[in-house]
Design a protein that fits this description.
By secondary structure, this protein is of the alpha+beta class. It contains 4 helices and 6 strands, in the order E-H-H-H-E-E-E-E-E-H. A 6-stranded antiparallel beta barrel has the order 1-2-3-6-5-4.
Length: 172
């Protein structure tokens, strides 16, 4: 398996069949199931957005969500996350695995966690994974959208790595 450098933060806890973990996992997947997001999905499904600028449409939807967040903040509402026991730095990733800098995992133990993803829009990505060593894990469960975003992030990081290798080669 080929790992790619990727500086990410993760919070996690031992998976204990907790309904709280499952509830947070489900709620984070539907975080974009707001009225404007639902409207956009339906419009895309009907083909009503084919002649629209998709980037501009996405930016407008995200602006609407930010305004909703600001309104919620002003009303004193805040998205609450579960308090997870462990925190770590992901050093390298692949399409199905990741590796931490430190040896925190218990081998063959299953975990629930959240990874802070640096793409647009920034969000916490809920994840279930199983430790295969003290610092290495296999991804067990991701939402479909998160899996697509994770794979796209891996590919983007691969491109960065290739550019860096070319720059080193050209520099020598």
């Amino acid at each position: 398996m080929r790992y790619i450098n990727a500086p990410l933060k993760i919070e996690f806890d031992v998976e204990n069949s907790s309904k709280e973990f499952k509830h947070e996992y489900d709620s984070l997947s539907s975080a974009d199931d707001d009225s404007i997001g639902e409207w956009l999905r339906l419009a895309k499904a009907r083909g009503n957005t084919e002649e629209s600028d998709q980037v501009l449409l996405t930016l407008i939807v995200e602006l609407h969500r930010k305004m909703d967040e600001m309104n919620a903040f002003m009303r004193g509402e805040k998205q609450e996350f579960l308090d997870l026991t462990y925190r770590g730095d992901i050093e390298v990733i692949s399409h199905e695995y990741f590796k931490l800098k430190d040896e925190i995992f218990e081998n063959k133990t299953e975990y629930y966690g959240r990874i802070e993803m640096p793409f647009f829009p920034k969000r916490q990505m809920p994840i279930y994974f199983k430790a295969i060593s003290k610092n290495e894990a296999k991804i067990v469960l991701l939402h479909e959208r998160d899996e697509k975003d994770w794979n796209a992030y891996v590919v983007a990081r691969e491109r960065v790595m290739i550019r860096e290798m070319r720059a080193k080669k050209d520099g020598n």
